[in-house]
Design goal:
This protein is α/β, with parallel strands linked by helices. The protein has seven helices and 33 strands. Helix content is 17%, strand content 30%. It has an eight-stranded parallel β-barrel with strand order 21-22-23-24-25-28-30-31, surrounded by four helices. A six-stranded antiparallel sheet has the order 3-2-4-9-6-7, with no helix packed on it. Strands 1-10-5-8 form a four-stranded antiparallel sheet, with no helix packed on it. The structure holds (2S,3S,4S,5R)-3,4,5-trihydroxy-6-oxo-oxane-2-carboxylic acid (GCB).
């Protein structure tokens, strides 16, 4: 019996080990990669018939899974073979992209879809290593390569990669990916949100070939305490990662710095320089930074700036700045559905610029990397957000680990982007002891992982000592953040627009206040008097009155109204007005600007 248990345990730990995810490779944006984007075969599998046998046991746990397991990509070899699926005869779908807006029958679908891509691959050097890298896949993803499980990833908006070096063949590799976007009570986000649960391989998939020992990760930033010092660490991955020479070069600053990795493959460094041109919203200066070892080389475009708070001021490079912002969902303004391309990101950020923004809130989950790369280039500050939204299971340890993992992955990806100044822990979460602990732990984790940025969360406001006309923030977690942010909907969910003029604010904390949301629904082209809901006039009136009301908050240092563009949400069902769209956009999903757009634009123009 004991022996048997040990065997089971060993098998179990082997499975766990073999499913472990590899450390995230950074800067794949600039690496030479082979894209697997394009048409993939797919099978819709609501009963997960390709994953479980008829006793509902996962095929991947069977010694001999047989022909039912979709990850084997089986083909009938003789006329007697019984195989009840065939990827190559199944329909195709584009990757990257959500499935909902590509196939009408999948518009409301929440469940499992299997993807398959076959490809040939010739490594350029036999000692090289090869990885498959997923930019994002919503929500649970099981990855199989040539019939072997590579691993599983949870979370719909962050990248992950697996090594395939030892499984790779020159011809006919097959990558089979099971993507399941079922919402889960214990998930992050949970069952209830106000956005479309787009499923699928929503961002790109690529093959990355690296030398045997390669530059896996680095963080190169200005020392928050000394703006004449560039600090960083670089980690190498591979058998020969110890005692390796690493060179960091920034030609424009005449920097050519040599260092050596320690026994674990890590090199830390600090380079003093007195003539750094700082990245700012006015002059978003990016330097070409080269990192080189004797085997590998990577180039990144990095901006250097400091961000800090002092009392109620936000200081960018030591100077106070007002965050003229707008909230954005990741929907394509070009083709609809989940946004993923550079063109999608560019259009959204151009609209933000046109509005006069120097800042965007990327809600409510990590957006694709183009957004951050372009924000870096365009001089737009960014709030990035973890999808801890509304009513997460605060007491569930796995939920916490999941939230932490997703946060960790977006920090890994974007920690070298000058534009990113705020990590947001959560949105509109109900206060409780368990929630405070959950968010405080996330905050602690984030500060340790990245001490160069500010922490916030979109909180909620409430009456001050029972007085409905005086509003405050009474939330213990407010003590933990650097930027005090909250959403408020006075004039929309909370009374009518006239109410704005009756409200005053009493916020005692000496911290910068950034209003993370306010807004009203309006259907583009619907006109009437300013008291009629859903008209552009109502929305315009709300913006005028809200901006007046918020300006009386002494510590006000920024706003990101809700929202740049109308976005899909299954919660929004009012016929002829919503038809599954949240209508609080300043721009319609067709790109038409509503009247309130111009109110906010002139507010920003007048603001220093
Ligand atoms: C909120 C949420 C946001 C919703 C918005 C609304 O407070 O943070 O996700 O979409 O309100 O339109 O109600």
């Amino acid at each position: 019996m004991k022996l048997k248990l040990t065997a089971v345990f060993l098998l179990f730990s082997f499975i766990r080990f073999s499913f472990a995810q590899d450390p995230l490779i950074v800067n794949t944006y600039n690496r030479d990669v082979t894209s697997l984007n394009g048409q993939w075969h797919f099978i819709v599998d609501p009963y997960e018939n390709g994953f479980y046998n008829y006793r509902y046991e996962p095929f991947e746990k069977q010694e001999n899974p047989g022909n039912g397991a979709f990850f084997n990509n089986a083909k009938a070899k003789s006329k007697t073979d019984l195989i009840e699926y065939n990827f190559d005869k199944s329909d195709t779908i584009a990757v990257p992209s959500d499935w909902n807006t590509q196939k009408e029958k999948l518009f409301y679908y929440e469940g499992t879809v299997w993807y398959k891509k076959s490809f040939d691959y010739l490594v350029s050097k036999s000692s090289n290593r090869v990885f498959v890298y997923f930019e994002a896949s919503n929500y649970e993803t099981d990855v199989y390569f040539n019939g072997k499980k590579l691993g599983k990833h949870t979370g719909g908006f962050t990248p992950f990669n697996f090594e395939v070096t030892n499984l790779l063949k020159e011809k006919n590799n097959f990558l089979v990916v099971k993507v399941d976007n079922k919402r889960k009570k214990e998930g992050v986000p949970t069952l209830n949100t106000d956005w479309w649960n787009y499923g699928g391989l929503t961002r790109g998939v690529k093959v990355i070939e690296t030398p045997n020992t390669f530059i896996n990760d680095y963080m190169i930033q200005l020392d928050p305490k000394n703006n004449e010092s560039i600090k960083g660490e670089i980690s190498l991955n591979g058998k020969n990662n110890a005692n390796q020479n690493v060179t960091i070069a920034i030609p424009e600053l005449n920097i050519n710095y040599n260092t050596v990795t320690d026994n674990s493959g890590l090199a830390t460094f600090e380079i003093s320089h007195t003539d750094i041109l700082y990245w700012s919203t006015i002059n978003p200066k990016l330097y070409n930074v080269t990192i080189e070892t004797n085997q590998d080389k990577t180039i990144d475009q990095i901006g250097f700036r400091t961000i800090a708070t002092k009392g109620s001021d936000i200081l960018l490079n030591g100077e106070s700045i007002f965050l003229k912002g707008i909230s954005i969902h990741e929907e394509s303004p070009i083709r609809g559905g989940r946004g993923h391309s550079k063109e999608d990101a560019h259009q959204l950020l151009l609209w933000a610029k046109e509005l006069g923004c120097n800042y965007v809130r990327l809600s409510h989950y990590p957006h694709n990397e183009h957004m951050l790369r372009l924000a870096d280039q365009m001089g737009i500050l960014v709030w990035e957000e973890n999808p801890v939204y509304w009513t997460i299971q605060w007491e569930n340890k796995d939920t916490y680990e999941n939230a932490k993992q997703q946060l960790s992955e977006v920090i890994d990806r974007d920690k070298n982007r000058a534009s990113v100044i705020i990590w947001s822990m959560a949105n509109e979460t109900p206060t409780s002891e368990a929630r405070n602990e959950f968010l405080s732990n996330l905050t602690k984790f984030t500060r340790e992982k990245d001490p160069t940025r500010l922490i916030s969360a979109a909180l909620e406001q409430s009456d001050y000592n029972g007085n409905k006309f005086v509003r405050t923030i009474s939330d213990e977690f407010a003590n933990k953040v650097d930027i005090l942010s909250f959403n408020q909907y006075i004039g929309w969910y909370d009374g009518l627009v006239e109410k704005c003029a009756t409200i005053s604010w009493k916020i005692d904390l000496d911290k910068p206040v950034v209003i993370s949301e306010f807004g009203a629904g309006a259907k583009y082209g619907l006109h009437g008097d300013k008291h009629t809901r859903w008209t552009e006039e109502y929305q315009e009136y709300l913006y005028i009155e809200t901006l007046k009301m918020l300006s009386s908050i002494e510590q006000l240092r920024g706003i990101s109204p809700w929202i740049l563009v109308d976005f899909r949400s299954p919660r929004r069902v009012l016929p002829e007005i919503q038809d599954n769209w949240n209508r609080k956009g300043l721009i319609s999903e067709k790109g038409e600007k509503k009247m309130a757009f111009f109110i906010l634009k002139s507010f920003y123009e007048a603001k220093q």
